Amino acid sequence: MKKAFTILALTGLTLVSCTKDYSCTCEQKEVIGTDVENSEYKFTVEGATKVQAQAACNEATVKVEESGYSMEQTCTLTKK
């Protein structure tokens, strides 16, 4: 029982220590008619695993195309 508790505690500490703060850097290109606007911004994913942070960046990556309008936003993950 004591051995099982020790293994469980070590596993829990390992999982907790894997969380870090990450940044997503997003580049956005917006085209309205003939006007093109480029911008960049960052957002922070706090206390996440790398997989969770990557999922948040992937979710922020979007592409929209409509008549006379398009917007493409690409986000990449960086460790903060």
Number of distinct beta strands: 4
Structural class: alpha+beta
Annotation field: number of helices = 2
Q: Mind describing the biggest β-sheet?
A: 4 strands, antiparallel
Overall number of domains: 1
User: Into which percentage range does the β-strand content fall?
Assistant: over 45%
- Radius of gyration of CA atoms, rounded to a whole number: 20 Å
Order of helices and strands: HEEHEE
C-alpha geometry: elongated
Q: If strands are numbered along the chain, what order do they take across the biggest sheet?
A: 2-1-4-3
Helix content: 25-40%
Q: What are the segments in which pLDDT stays under 50 over at least 5 consecutive residues?
A: 4-8
Separation of termini? Answer: 40 Å
Provide the residue-averaged pLDDT: 85
Explain what you see.
- This protein has helices spanning 2-17, 50-60; strands spanning 20-32, 35-48, 62-66, 69-79.
- It starts with a helix and ends with a strand.
- Residues 4-8 have low confidence and may be disordered.
- It is elongated.
- It is of the alpha+beta class and 80 residues long.
- A four-stranded antiparallel sheet has the order 2-1-4-3, covered by helices on one side.
- The chain contains two helices and four strands.
- The protein has one domain.
- It comes from Wandonia haliotis.
- This is Lipoprotein.
Keywords:
four-stranded antiparallel sheet; Lipoprotein; 4 strands; 2 helices; alpha+beta; 80 residues
Topology:
Elements: H1 2-17, E1 20-32, E2 35-48, H2 50-60, E3 62-66, E4 69-79
Antiparallel strand pairs: 1-2, 1-4, 3-4
Protein name: Lipoprotein
